[in-house]
Amino acid sequence: MSDIARAANVSIRTLFRRFQKLSGTTPLDFVQAARMERAKWLLSESSDSTEAIAPKCGYVDVSSFRKLFVKRLGMTPKEYWQRFAKLEP
Q1: Residue 23 in contact with residue 31, Cβ under 8 Å?
Q2: Dihedrals φ, ψ of 86, to 5°?
Q3: How many angstroms from the chain centroid is the CA of residue 89?
């Protein structure tokens, strides 16, 4: 975010305020939503494990990834895979 703020010649605080005003969400929520969309796609389109998918979505800690997934989607990555996977295991 600091690189973006510097490129826009504004403070990080100003960047956050403008981002939220224009998008209706915080930059962190926006990034997390994008990461979750990627995770959902990978879970439904690939046979990768949660441990393989988490880093592909920008998460180093698989446990944190799982907790955030449940918080945002109301189900575990495994439950999502079981419901929406297009590939057989």
Answers
A1: no
A2: -100, -10
A3: 24
| Residue 87 tokens, joined | 């590939």
| Tens digits of residue pLDDT in 63-75 | 999 999 999 999 9
Match 């998918």 to its residue by tokens: 53
Q: Per 3-state DSSP, what percentage of the chain is helix, strand, and coil (rounded to 5)?
A: 75, 0, 25
Per-residue pLDDT of the chain (89 residues; tens, 9 = 90+): 888 889 989 999 999 999 999 999 998 899 999 999 999 999 999 989 999 999 999 999 999 999 999 999 999 999 999 999 886 55
- Which residues make Cβ contacts (< 8 Å) with residue 9, sequence separation at least 6? none
Task: Specify burial of residue 30 (Cβ count, 10 A radius: 0-12, 13-18, 19+).
Answer: middle
Domains in the chain: ranges and CATH: 26-84 (1.10.10.60)
